User: What shape does this take?
Amino acid sequence: MILLDTDVMVDILRGYEPAKEWLKTAQEIGIPGLVADDCNRALTSFASHHLSDKIGLLDALIAETAIGVNAELATFNVKHYRVLKGLRSVQPYAK
Assistant: This one.
C-alpha cells in the first residue's frame, strides 16, 4: 500500500500531468486517517524532532499513520520525514 502525502494530493487535484500519469499506474493507494495509536506515536515523533529537524505536527501524524498501516508514503517532503525511523517514503514521479 502507498499512502499519499498532502503535496502529492495537491498535484493530483491541480491536474499536474506527471501526478495524474503516476496515479493511473499506482496500485492500492490510501490517504491518511487518524487513529489513537498513530496520534500517540506522532506526538512522540513531533516532540523528538520538531525543534531539531523542523517536523510539523501534521507531518508527524501523516508519517506515523503510514508506519502504523505498514504503507509507503508518497511524498516530495523527504527532508521532513528522513528522521523518522521505520518510515518508507517514495517520490512517486519527477517534478
Observations:
- The helical segments are 6-13, 17-25, 36-53, 57-68, 78-81.
- The first helix runs from residue 6 to 13.
